[in-house]
Records
---
Amino acid sequence: MTRYLMNLILALIAALTLPVTASAQSARLNLDFPELAAKASETVDVTLDGPMLRLAGKFLSTSDADERAAREVINGLSGIYVRSYEFDHEGEYDKSAADRVKAQLGPTWVNFVKVTSRTRNDGSRVKEDVNIYADTRGDSIVGLLIIASEPKEFTVVNIIGPIDIEKLTRIEGQFGIPHIRSEGKLKHGKDERHD
Amino acid sequence: MSAAAPLPFPTNDANLHRAAAGDHDAFGTLIRQHQDMVFSIAWHFLHDRDRAEEVAQEVFLQLYRTLAEIESDAHLTFWLRRVTANRCIDESRRGRWRIVTLDEVNDIARDANDSDPLLTRKVGQMLQRLPAPQRLAITMRYQEGLEPSEIGAVLDMPLNTVKSHLRRGLAALREWLGVTS
Amino acid sequence: MNFEDDLTRALARKSAPNGFADRVLSRLDAPRHRNFSMLRRIAAAIVLTAALGGLTAHQIVEHRRNEQGERARRQLMTALHIASAKMRVAQRAVVHD
């Protein structure tokens, strides 16, 4: 399964003959969505640049499989940025947010995976658009962008640096939101305690 | 939704007041009334019997120091759930408690009402993969039988956040346990 | 079989270990080592301050760095888990096309 995806990526990269200009932009994108954060019932906001990534790497466990895999994944990366917004109701967020991100992509970016809907393992269907882009320079991927849109959730992931996609996919973990109280950066658009 | 496990002892505010006045026998009664609840929350969170007992002991020692502030038996239950949850989170930050212990044989033998030890073991293992807030929300829901609004009060979280944790945690558990609709 | 019923059964309360209440009560009665005379306490404080004086600042810095590092680690794992989950969504779709 992963071999198929990897081969697809490699084939796309091999087919590219795009020049790398002297003014080639960094693979980092502007992921500020204050209007989404204001409306979201739950927000994940992760900004890890080079020094913080290296610091985080020093604290990764050697006895946890996911953290061992993470150590390999982040090797050589210069930034990881995540914004994920969850809303109470469908239609609560502006779908053009995805377009605003895509508009920043230069000619070196390739949209190599586009998923428009899927079925969960439990048989239920959920409308989810997932687009994955790679910033390619010659034979290398120097950046990754994932945009995932569900009816009540919008997620953007921007990774800067030579990312090993197969290793990234092997990190299993969970689908959850981290501990809210400890992380300072997480904000609630609404401050309701009880309905 | 099934109700929380019934207390083996009747609620007893008088006993609470005696314990607050320094009566160790009364405090011992309080401990025995609530020890299973406190220990179970810690156990399901940490999945380590020794650590769970350590956390549970600390909770009751903290209770002893703050008995004068406990107003009623209901308040006591609320207080114990909240403090146990907080201590579990503190404990998980001290060590990295995503490692699942395999010391389940004694646990299976001990709990005569465990009708499906394999399921219990699997759920316990999968629960460890969830982040702390989801693990606690699910424990409060299915061990204690609390409604989301009650969970929010105990864990000091907005209701929507609790619902989100429950939804995501259950979705993850379903996937890992291979449960289809 | 209902999944939520299974969860309720699996997460049923466990019995606290035998003797739990007695162990808690014994800790209530344990001596708390408050027998030092005032002079001994002062002497101990002086010795402790002298020993720790040069290290305190370092310890504070180290503690803050540890807190920062742990926070960064948690954020990193959150980010990678989210990214990986979305990648697997795409993988499943590619396989099933």
---
Amino acid sequence: MHDFLIIWAHIDLVFTGLINTLILIVLAGVMSILLGLILTPLLVGSNKALATMVQCYVDAMRCVPFLLFVYLIYFGLPTLGLRLSSWTAGALALVLYNTAYMAELLRGAWLELPPSILESGRSFGFTGWGLLRHIMVTPMLIRALPMIGNQLIQILKDSAFLTVIAVKELTHELNGIQSTYFIPFAAFLTALILYWIICILMEMVMGSFEQFAVLRRP
Amino acid sequence: MNAYDYYSILQGAIFTVSLSIVSLVIGVPLGLGFALIRWAKVPFFKDLVQAYVNVIRSCPTVTLVLLIYYALPEFGVSLNPLPAAVLALTLSTTAFNCEIWRSALVEFPKDQLDAAHALGLNRLMRMRLIVFPQIWRSSLPGIFNEITLQIKSTPAVAVIGIVEITRAALRVGSNTYEPLPPFIFALLIYSSIVFVFLKLQKYFEIQMKEKGYI
């Protein structure tokens, strides 16, 4: 019990970590969904060269472990003359990595939609971005909602890897407290519980979206 | 990067592959056991399994590895990095495999079980002759998916000092002051490992289609 009091005394550090983790998840979640929405029409589109390029990016990301990708961005990019702070590099890695997954699962949703939606949109004169924005986005997102929820939890778990490049997220802060006071059990248990709470909150948010979606599913 | 550097990263690959295989060999059957506990609604244990699966599925692998390696000694169980890594990876993959098996069990048609009952098969025979031959086929894609995810989550054990591919590449990078080549080499190794498993999955699916199982 004493150990948990030590952690309570450093609640500001825990709080910093929690806020950072939350910001990273929200940023990475929103950005990767938006970028995924932009990449999806290219993946299923008629421009073969562009589709192949995007597919290569998606497949490459799906083969690389996230940790290696973080190292690649943080240590590899400076070789090419681009130097990023650890936070920026971490956020960039999260966004780029998960965009590929979002694009892939949105592509699946697009292909599962009845072709009549696309055709009737076209016949009403929608083309290009207008077609995507006004016609396709909502049914696509509704279809892909459960998978997007899974991927958001994956983002949460990926964000813990950012401790290796010293991003001040939850695992990093609690590992810091742990190594100062030698209270590993209390520290990591706190981290685990906080991650769990974030997951439950995320599931509640997704649940409310799900209710919205259920009403609009064919 | 000289030949020795390439060799050291390849040695890391052996750790990556063997850690994933060991954790999967334990985790896949254990996941089936846990899924059966939930499916059969064994009192008390089903809640225990559900709590375990929920917590582990929301816990990042890195945090789990750190928890097991640093916190277990407080309870008098001091593990070397290697057993700690195997334990953490097994715990996490078991939870995911449990969900994969459970979804196959939930979708299993009830009338087949009733028919088996009517033919007088006992519990074990129902499981062995009716249920299992069908659920392993329907779970196979999910399990292969989990295998590739597991390979990609092994770098998490690098935080407790196990030299697998990613950590080996990081070492070479910090020795030669050129981080890019070893990382790209590591990327190629990961891609080829994942590629092998994807081919294997395709092979199994084609085999099953030819034999008319799916």
---
Amino acid sequence: MIQRTKGAQSIAFSESPYIMSSASVVGKKESEGPLGKYFDMTDPENLFGEETWEAAEGTMQKEACTLAIGKAELTPEKIRYLFGGDLLRQGIATSMGLESFQIPLFGLFGACSTSGEALALAAMCVAAGYGEHMLAVTSSHFGTAEKEFRFPLSYANQRPLSAQWTVTGSGAFVVGNKKSHVRISGITIGKIVDYGLKDSQNMGACMAPAAADTIAVHLQDFEREADEYSRIITGDLGYVGQSILFDLMRKKGLDIMKNHMDCGMTIFDQQTQDTHAGGSGCGCAATTLAAYILPKLEKGEWKKVLFVPTGALMSTVSFNEGESVPGIAHGIVLEHC
Amino acid sequence: MNFMDYFNAFWVGGLICALVQILLDRTKLMPGRVMVLLVCTGAVLGFLGIYQPFQDFAGAGASVPLLGFGNTLFKGVKEAVKDEGFIGIFMGGFKASAVGISAALIFGYLASWVFEPKMKK
């Protein structure tokens, strides 16, 4: 058997699976942001024709999947397995929204790192020969996330400056063995990293240690230098989390300041959109990847990118019981080909 | 009613809100905790005999913020204990605050018929 594991936590694929297509569906605020023109679909009402935010989030996933499958010139029957997740209790946006596809489903939860988890599993399945095409999808919605983790919108609470803005959006990706211009050449699966922070309104700080850990382990596992990558892209650390990440990396003797980018800082304009510390949520990294990062890789503008979506593994119950907020981050190596 | 009543109500009410805004901005207290803190503080100030004279001076400026609700709870308990004895501890607070709480529930419910929660800007 060919040895494909690499170092402590990574896999280097001997035959890399490809990202055959991707799609992004976003809400109004995202469509008005700096990446607005790159997204595939939006709804100014943020409801996507539904009555509730939860149903709207499910519909966003469905639309994103439909678009991604269509762009890959496939039909749902041609997708072997679906890897999907969101931020809601029991993952209802995925289970309610994707029911009609009738694709065998793995429901995932990795908080905002779910896009990385889904892509990693989809890539592993394709590389192992368990199917030709896999679908990876995640979503988040401002209305559902506020209700789930903070207060319902009708409560109208105030947001502290360290708080991030949950992205309303869903990104879907078809991973398969048919050649495209972006391949997944390796993955580094992250550990749970907990620095004992308890502030659910400052998630960037809770997730930065996990991102730092995964990036450092990745570089060690693959024996690479940080500047081999055109970009090292974290999911949703935001402005607060980014500066913590730089500090932690410096302590490990690594400098990623030159080529670091954060989806949460890219998707909104902090000056004009009043989003405080930046965007967050499963949809943040997923839609930025689909709409902004992948096209740059396809064109060859970026050659090799380390995509590191970050998640804060908390629930309202753990938070109310005074538990800290552990973080997790997964690294996905995306290469132009 | 004269101009000074309005004036005092506005600056006192505004000052209470401004102080609480500092708590929301500068501390990590969640909004729920801040609200409970206000109600408890109001009850304690009522017990110490400070809040009632303050409310007589500022009117709605002191009775409308949550501090006033705490004072109302305390006042209700005090009166019920006087009339009913021990059992009044469990009665008074609810009796005194019944109008406010019911109004909040009923008007909140009515409003939910007319308006949908919207996304924040």
---
Amino acid sequence: MRVVRIAFASVVLLLSLACAASPRQTGVASGGLTYTPSTGSWPLWRLAYTGFVFQMPGTPVLTRSAANDDATLTAELSVPGPAQFTVMATPHEEEELADVDRLLADSMRAAATRLGATVRSQRPLEVAGYPGVEVVVDMMQYGATGVVQFYVGRTATYSASVTFPQSAEASIAADARRFFESMRLDEGDRPDRVGQGQVEPGAQAWLYRSPHAADFAVRMPGRPTRQALDVQTGSGTKHALTYAVGDAGRSYRVTLTQYDERPPRGQLDGVRDMLVQQGYRVQSERALQVQGYAGREVVLAAPSGTTTLVVRLFTTETRLYDVRATLPTTATPTRDPDAARFFDSFRIL
Amino acid sequence: MPHTKTRSLAFVAIPLVALAALLVTASAAAQRSPSAPTAPSPNAPSPTAPATPPPAPPETPPPPVLPPGNTAGATTALSAAGFQLRPVDRATVRVFALTGVGTRLAKGRSSHQSRLIAIARAGHGSGVVIRGDGLILTARHVVQSADTIAVVFPGQSTAVPARVVYVDPDDDLAFLQVAGPVADFVPLPDAPPTLTASQRVSVSGYPLDPRERFPAAASGDVSRMNNDGRIQLSISVNPGNSGGPVVDADGKLIAIVSERGEPEAGVLGIALVEPIRAALDDFRADVATLPPQVFSAADARLAQIVVDFLRIDPDGTPYDPAAATRALEAARETTLPPEASALVAAHAWNLALVMLETNRAADWNALRPELQAGATDLVRAALALAGRALEQAPYLRDHYGFTRFLLRIGGRAVAPPLPPVEQRGRLQGAAAPMR
């Protein structure tokens, strides 16, 4: 896995930094090197073409870089010295985001073990919506300690690390904290993770959700669940993904079904007819479109008589989007503010 | 942009990201044509015939630029230039559909500085006005995934805003609405016509260069009805013809252009068109009763900004104060949708770069003092709008990726270079102090 490689490379980096320090600088050989905390202000730096902003106790030096294209950049910046402050951004594939917390933590622990470093502590963290992990490793053979924070974005993994002689741990603590607390990441690469599908209270919970590889954006009142399923269609079995948020009273759901070609003619009628077969009763139906994609809205009364189902269907060149809300019958679909937030915000990306 | 449906057919809307290359190619081809070797015409003089000087070409005035508004004056104005438009040509409009804004790094032609340039992701096709209130029929794939649509009438340079009001789920057809009244239109027939194999038909549309102000006509024959119900014509259509009308010898609307042959696959000289029967069905079932659309002055400004944005080359277009004024007026709108904010941000930024390149200035501080305020206004507007767009709609980070790159370089006139592979040593540009 790519992230494993990233984590592995980072630990190698940590060790190489520790090894690169002269014996005089590594506390073991010198018998105790200390770190003099900086007293001045630290300039704010931005890694070009990323949203990665940070402060360092000095001017960073570019130690490794690779431009993959105009949009992705591997770059590693360090302030050398008895303690090494390093930041790095490494691009990764968006598909590698699944279960990122466990992946990062496990890979760090495994790599550290393999290299003889002891993981002293490990804790999950989140910076500006970027999931991450902080790991503290001791490299006894070098008399060095490293603190690494990883933040995982959609297109890159960002890391910040401080390595220092163990004898300097107390004296460097304040600067290390200042360094880590300065990390900023912008909205541009924040991953949209799936969640438990619970409705969060308040209008502020209605954020745009745009799960990776889903090719849509929609406001939902919480992090949606994701469910993969195979569905039977007029042109065979197709793969579908459903993203849903809901509680006992209301639910909001987007299902996208992937086709090899354009969904077959009459597919929109087929979805409506299937619901009618299940006992739903059509209350209204109208044509609509979003961004030039053809669509249909069907409002149906549920067989139970307690809920109303509003379904909007859109077809693209290779997909069928099924956007639906289940509302209590007391709500008027055309005037319900939450239904409007949900449906009006839907965008095909 | 839409995918190619088969290996040998392609939609005929133009992705405008490739506009520059297209223009260069078209221009070069046009220049080569007169001297290109061709088979001798039967009427050409024999090589032994005495040379006679060719007659002097008649003095032909260039086609006029018509004032904004409808196309009522088109016939008269063009007639003065010695060219007649058919009714269907007068009703054929150009459709621009903006789907996003990307970016690239380029070196300024006059300043030689690295610039972050906003690049439109847009399509260009054709459409036909079918009702006097401004209802337009076009191809679905022309407007698919569009966030902002602008329509330009024949002979005009001013754009009007358009909205998609209906999209056919099964056929390549869509209906747009612009503000009426529109004098020139070709109505849908009362009943779908019967087509005959080898029947002579013609198309109208805006192939290739989207800067051309008048539609181009082409004619050919009805070849057959394909298995999928579409009609195949023996007409060469090109990118930009999509959505354009097909009419019979009487000028009656019989189809809408959808696809062309792919020359790369060896398919030349054919067009696939959507017969008007499906459009008639759509119109009667869903479109005829749609409520009227209302367009504001802000909508009109935004449509013009789409066209301004597509026409301006940050590295080669003279600075246009009117375009800058429009951009700044739009930037003051507080109710812009996020996609529109991103568009205006990109346009304002490119205009600021035009100021730099026009004045051979490396950055804003190098501009003459009287220009600095204008540039500063544009840059501030671009940054504010890009920030607002991403805050309101984070999903724009992909299709409108320009916004996040603009914010990430902090609006600096000289874009930081991407460090080369394995560069070592003192930091140069990969990180920069924030101001």
